[in-house]
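Box S1 | Example of a co-folding query
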Amino acid sequence: MREPATEASAIFLHSSVEHQLSGPAQRLEPAPRTGCRSGRKLSVMQTQDSITRRETCPKRMVFGPCGGALPDGRCELPIGACVFPEVVAPLAAVTGRPPARVPRVLTDFSAPPFDPSALRRIAATLAPASDAVLVGEHSNRPDFPPTLVARLLLDAGVRPWVTLACRDRNRVVLEQELRGLKHVGIDAVLCVTGDARGYDVRPDATQVFDLDGPRLAALAASIGVPAAVPEAPLGWPAAARPARLVAKQANGASIAVLNHVAHPAVVADFVAAARRLGLTIPVVAAAAVFTDAGSARVLAALPGLEVDAAAVEEVLTSADPVETGIAVAVREAEALLDIDGVAGINLSGSASSAGWEAAAEIKAEVGTRLTTGARR
Ligand code: SF4
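Box S1 (continued) | Returned holo structure for iron/sulfur cluster
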């Protein structure tokens, strides 16, 4: 764990990290091969080529592919194939700061934007059933700045984890938010590149992508903010994803939050592979919460995520889809919590199309059953 003692040392560290991330061509020893099904290998290297490639990536990634790369290697945006022919992993440059507490139940927090009253009501619903809440950053739904959202949630009695996306902020604003979040006492910041905004979503807004998620995590760690990082077990190339997460750990990540997959066995295989490669940070796995066609559709549409089609069918054909959806989420969460190396569950998704507060009540019921062991 390393926290700069002075402002000057923080600036030096940032410069050092940036030098390594954008400096001259440098090749490191390759990481162990991972039995890649696609026949590709993970190359832990940084080359001038990677710097060039980011300019042809819609997210200007240096350390790609991002979690939105589709299983067949296509980009999440309609540009054709992902421009990264293999994983380019970050260098080991920064030691992460562990979060003060690892939540067993980390619940997605969704509230109408710019509405402190609704935020407080939803926080009150989720607080008894969640160890912490995870605030997202949506490309089509701007909200108060993350530091302000964190302060409001702390005042409302919940522990916030806040997502910070590179999509809409340059590196100066990212650092402002990281320092603000540290100041208000946040437990962790989920450092993401961010979903690219579709061409028909706020087309007048510039997508920034000064940094990508791995570099944002390094920046967070370098100023003493616990950095959570996402990983997509089924993102392309899937066989290289465990090593990519280990590389993020070596570069500042102190906890991982996984994308949805359709079956807990996929998570078990992913975590086991990552641990064999040296992963020691806690892993939070995602359990999908949906109770109607709309909330299932939202989850299924997100790039880099998979939802169990049989579970969707079970919920949507049920005589009581809300109760069945809750039971399915509890069942998935319990299976994930049984996996060696999974420390917590992210109750993820919009849960319901019946409104923000109805959705919060559904997620709170899932959290309560997980906490108390109650079943119906
Ligand atoms: S999938 Fe991600 S990393 Fe690959 S080109 Fe698209 S945006 Fe860039």
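The domain at 105-372 is CATH 3.20.20.220 (TIM Barrel). The first strand starts at residue 26 and ends at 27.
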